[in-house]
Amino acid sequence: MCGIAGIVSPRPDKMQDVQQMISCLSHRGPDGEATWQNDAQTIALGHRRLSIIDLSDAGNQPMHYMDRYTIVHNGEIYNYKELRQELSAKGYNFHSHSDTEVILAAYDCWKADCLQHFDGMFAFAIWDQKEHKLFAARDRFGEKPFYYCYSDDGFFFVSEIKAFWKIGVEKNYNSNLLLQYIATGFAQDAMDTGATYWQQVKKLPARHYLEFIPSTDQLQIIPYFDIDKSDGNISSEKAIEKFRNLFFNSVDKRLRSDVEIGTSLSGGLDSSSVVAAIHQLKQTGLVQKAFTASFPGFEKDETQLASNVAVKFGLSHFFTSPNEEDIAFDLEKFLSQHDEPVSSFSVYAQYKVYQLAKQHGVKVILDGQGADEILAGYSKYTHWFLQELYASGSSQFEKEKAAFNSTMFNLKNKLASKFPGWTAIQLEKKSIKKQRASIFNKDFVQEYLNRSSVYKPVVKTLNDILYFDVFGGGLEELLRNADRNAMAHGIEVRLPFLNHELVQFVFSLPSVLKIHNGYSKYILRQSMADMLPAEIAWRKDKIGFEPPQHQWMQHSQLQDKIHEAKKKLVQDNILAPSVLKNPIQPKAAYESNNYDWRFLSAAHLL
Fold it and tell me: What is the pTM of this model?
């Protein structure tokens, strides 16, 4: 986990620009800094190091290989030991014990197909001196960031957008995405085009690689991974066994580290399952550190559940209790860390958990993110599941509907299940209506409302909506938040539920193994039930890592900041002047029409 930057330019000697960019990324790599440029001074690479594997100088970057390749890499390749052994058998030599050197050998051996061999989170760029070509890639789900600018002056890339401002890139916001965010709370490009909140800045989409050939000024962006959504043929017993084996194998590989590892622990099923798997794998009485956000007196506080798990597995347990005074003090620094809008104060609570880990000397955290998106953990998935059963004429429909005690399945749901294309159109119209709300300046809406930004998928099965959420919906937004929050404190976050083999297997399962008998994430519950307390394994009251945002937004300093944010958005002709007369309306983190928080977050960009 590090910070990377680079420039490929026909104008020589860009070293000073690269140095400015990586200096802006010091928080991502507090353990070292280095730069390199080729003899012709047409390419410069920079790296900030967070030392996790091979702490020696042999692991430093930019790293060179075979007098041909130079790499800067952010992330981890978890199966690097297996790949190193395979590549050694093919005659490749290694001078370090790092996963980065394995990437270089794998690229020389398989070229772009090396990406098919990696189990990891990564964003890296390799300069091939022989071919005079830049090859860069991003992991399958978007855990690690890769931003770029491409102009007559060359190709520039970096781990965080803020580094571009240091070298004079124009800071013009993307009005289409800003309108979408304020109106709907959705903070990313649903079509995954590579757009960001800044006109001059693009992101390399997850599961894509790029090749840039400066001699011909040719840039190609190519996908390399996809999920098969069709159901396989497997019994429930074998599915549970295979899921558990894949999950445990994923956790095991993500424990590879030369520094101390800890866990986030919310008291929910996902993080508790990670803790239980670690305990089962080690079998040595290992005492690990766990970190929890606690909100005393808040009705959705999960402290007691987290404490029960910590006691069961003998964890050293640490708590942070952020409040409205903390957020008022941290707000500017917190929002500046993200470069793009964030959805709620729940992101700040995560920021404080990772800060706590740093204070206790932990540099690697395992977390449960991704489970809800691949295993249908959110309550919103229930109606999609029931619609699939209804449309297929499944005999299980009435049973599952009764198990959820669902009163929401009505005529509208029946129509949606029979006419999914019509449903997608209606949902797009609903989103467009939100973007035409009276809070906006009418000229702003007329100019920047973009129908492609309100894209909704045609959903015939539960897998269809899960696929959208994993690759076009909310998952990458959550991963972006986790990366910025962790890197702000020099912490590496590892996510066992996002092993690509595990994800592909889950997508091959029938929906009734994801949602069953009134329970979400059914196969995970069955796999972990013998290791977790029943109150964790079979709880239904999902909280979703929620802080007392409604209370926090009543703080006078925050209300002053919200009022100033509204004034700024009015001055920029984004909001209608009448908004200034509206009283501030504190909302819970996941409540709809959470406008005042969005005003606060959006105005920070301007």
Answer: 0.96
CA pair distance 476, 469, nearest whole angstrom: 9
Q: How far apart are CA 349 and CA 355, in angstroms?
A: 10
- The tokens for 25 are 């990324």
Side chain identity at 251, as an amino acid letter?
V
Residue 286: CB atoms within 10 Å:
14
Judged against a pLDDT cut of 60, whether residue 606 lies above it is answered with yes
Average pLDDT over residues 479-494: 97
101 with 214, same domain? yes
* 293, β-bridge pairs: 320
Query: Quick one: pLDDT band at residue 478, thresholds 50, 70, 90?
Result: very high
Given pLDDT bands bounded at 50, 70 and 90, which one contains residue 188? confident
Cβ 346 vs Cβ 594: under 8 Å: no
Provide the phi-psi class of 275: left if phi over 0, else alpha when psi is between -120 and 50, else beta.
Answer: alpha
**For range 135-145, the mean pLDDT:** 98
Domain boundary (435, 469, 503) is at 469
Residues 352 and 275 in one domain: yes
Place of tokens 């800890």: 262
* Residue 125 to residue 252: CA distance in whole angstroms: 27
Residue 284: is its pLDDT beyond 90?
no
Identify whether residues 346 and 208 lie together within a single domain: no
Say which amino acid occupies 226.
Answer: D
The range of the structural domain enclosing residue 442 comes to 385-469
Tokens 């973009």 map to which residue? 450
Crossing angle of the two packed helices 303-312 and 269-282, in degrees rounded to 10:
10
Residue 326: the pLDDT is 94
Cβ partners under 8 Å of residue 393, min gap 6: none
Mean pLDDT (the chain, rounded):
94
Q: For residues 520 and 512, give the distance between their C-alpha atoms in angstroms, rounded to a whole number.
A: 9
